[in-house]
Specification:
The chain is of the alpha+beta class. It has one domain. The protein is 13% helix and 26% strand. The protein has four helices and eleven strands. The chain has a four-stranded antiparallel beta sheet with strand order 5-8-9-11, with no helix packed on it. A three-stranded antiparallel beta sheet has the order 3-4-6. A hairpin with a 5-residue loop joins strand 1 and strand 2. The longest helix is centred in the middle third of the chain and has 7 residues. It starts with 5 loop residues before the first strand and ends with a strand. It comes from Channa argus. InterPro entries: Fibrinogen-like_C (IPR036056). This is Intelectin. GO terms for molecular function: oligosaccharide binding. Keywords: Disulfide bond.
């Protein structure tokens, strides 16, 4: 409720207390595909394209199946502890390389992790042996073993 100034008994105006307005804004961006760039730290945005180790995108409009954005995808495949098993992960979407390829993706990881995944995908909500969920396996799809903490990022 917003009110104006009130009078004091002596006829002086009292200034109303400051009102803090809290407005919750939700911005919903609808998309069909995503693009990922792997860029080393400390490069300015103007140099990202030249400095990028890998650049790839999806082109099968997969986000339509998950509400049109990553927020909705992660509501369907939450990233939280003990939400699934190693074989119960979220979607693995094929990617198209703009810079790099499957071999260069595999070469970014050591031999042990590289034996557990197939390059050429982006996977959402992979689960490791300890039942921790990883948000994204960028550029790879886990296929055997459950050591996703070595090649996926963002977890619970």
């Amino acid at each position: 409720m917003v009110t104006g100034p009130t009078e004091t008994p002596l006829g002086q105006q009292r200034v109303p207390p400051r009102m803090i307005l809290r407005i919750q804004v939700t911005i919903i961006i609808i998309a069909e595909d995503i693009s990922v760039w792997h860029v080393p730290n400390n490069f300015t945005m103007e140099n990202w394209k030249l400095a990028g180790i890998l650049r790839y995108h999806t082109e099968n409009h997969f986000l339509r199946l998950y509400g049109g954005n990553l927020y909705q995808l992660f509501k369907q495949h939450p990233v939280r502890y003990n939400t699934g098993s190693c074989n119960n992960r979220g979607p693995a979407i094929p990617i198209v390389y703009d810079h790099g390829n499957k071999e260069s993706t595999r070469n970014l990881y050591g031999p042990n992790p590289g034996a557990e995944f197939d390059p050429g995908f982006i996977t959402f909500r992979a689960i490791n042996y300890e039942l921790a969920a990883m948000a994204i396996c960028s550029g790879v799809k886990p296929v055997k073993g459950c050591n996703t903490e070595h090649y996926c990022i963002g977890g619970a």
